[in-house]
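Troubleshooting entry. The earlier prediction with adenosine-5'-diphosphate gave an output that would not parse, so I re-checked the input for stray whitespace and re-submitted. Clean input:
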Amino acid sequence: LRDWRILKEDYNISSKGGDIPNPLRYWEESNIKKEILDIVQSLGFDEPTPIQRASIPLAMASRDLIGIAKTGSGKTLAYIIPALNYLLQLPHLESRDQIPQVLILVPTRELALQVEKEFKKFTARLNLNIISLIGGHSIEENVNSINLGCEIVVATPGRLLDCYERKMISLAECYYVVLDEADRMIDMGFEVQVLKILKLLPTDQNRFTSKPRNTFMFTATMSPAIQKITKNYLNQPGTLTVGELGT
Ligand code: ADP
Ligand code: MG
């Protein structure tokens, strides 16, 4: 068996922030539910990418994380796979079908649609629903999609707040939250909206898992604004860096 240090060298991963679990050597080592891994494998993803190797065990340990890895390194599945695993372990209550339990915040419509597409490779077979709340869809369309079921919401910050302020959606059950391309959200001027949303999220213990909310942030850089979010809204995160980025 190769140890963590050697694996880190193999995959060019560095980490900091307390006890960081070893990176995955292969998918099965993650304890992700078989029905999810079956889909991963049927999609031809024979082995995890470095950021997936490092992020998935940390997410499975219910730790918050900051992931820094370049474009194209597979960050989407790094949070989608544990998100799906989280949802499948919750009891299914029909009364909660219109209340999101996983929230993904992204800077742009295009990215939201890409993330939705990636999730949809899984959700149909797992009987879960994902929706996008983004500009370019009318508010009526947003209402309709919420009503059809929305365990997973992927949203741009402005449109999510708009829906929240119209009382179309609750954030009270979002115990699994991802800020994807957080640095770009800041660069595009969404800092105020992102902070507003973070303040609306639950801070109590999740009654189904007896654990606090998990917050995952992916970013290319650690600017002061990103560090402020880290300090105020992430709980002792592990920081995972793949390659030389962010240094
Ligand atoms: P990032 O968000 O880091 O820029 P993406 O999540 O968009 O990267 O992934 C980039 C591409 O890599 C996508 O086409 C995705 O399907 C593919 N991909 C993701 N994980 C794997 C994997 N484990 N094996 C092979 N390809 C993968
Ligand atoms: Mg991405």
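This one parsed fine. The longest strand covers residues 214-218.
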